[in-house]
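thread: overnight batch results

M.L. [08:02]
morning all. the overnight job finished for the chain we discussed friday. pasting input first so we're all looking at the same thing
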Amino acid sequence: MDPSANFLELGLDSLLLTQAAQLFQRKFGVTISFRHLMEELSSLDAIAAHLDEVLPADAFAPAPAAPPTAPLVPTEAAPGGALQNPSLEQLWRQQQELTQQLLQLMGRSPAVAAAPSSLAAAAIPTAQAAAAPAKPEVKTHGPFKPIDKSAGAALSPKQSRALEALIARYVKRTAGSKKYTDQYRPVLADPRSVSGFNRLWKEMVYPIITARSDGSKVWDIDGNEYIDFVMGFGASMFGHRPPFVVQAVHEQLDRGFEIGPLQLLAGEVATLISEMTGMPRVAFTNTGSEAVLAATRVCRTVTG
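M.L. [08:03]
and the structure it wrote out:
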């Protein structure tokens, strides 16, 4: 990664920055707070400079360099095709054996070994080729994607005007959501408030605040209508406020909703879940974390 890049641009969220602060303290014995990582120490270069200032000069000094060894020189191939350098020939044969084993594990036929003499000329790479850093591969998707600074830092005047117009239209149309996010940002720790953050369009990086929903539609606090194709991340399979669910909830509200005693529907629901999943028994928990904890305790009890 670029040592001068801001941690937020690199995709680090508050949880990762907190872990990083703890890691720096364990590794270097220097206290670096979360606030420091958000402000003056927001890049690897800034942290390195800070450590140089507060740590003794001889702390974490690199080990003395080993004396240079004589470079291996490719030798002429013997008449039979074998290399005159025994070490190089042994290395070549080990590589061939390893390649054949890998091909067998992959279900492919081992390739015919090339003549050792063909390796002689290119056995030792040049120092320049060995020292050339490999260009990092930028993923097009995934949980982490490095920021492509060249794409955002060099907008043409036409692109800049189009982006400014888009930001103005978006902010005007969703002004209520932006105001709500700013009002409760000090107390509401919502990571989606900075999802998709980019300094170029940071003024339009805030979640849409919904006011009501019905079926496949949701409406925000500004009155804009949206089609909710995510549907509660898959949980609302019948849509928002399906009539039979609303009716069942009203009936249950009239009867009461006790927290603590076993509910009358627990056995019936457990039976239906067992039939649907094929699992013999069902337990109800409040959170996924509680479910994992219970499963771990069961495993420890069984295995000792």
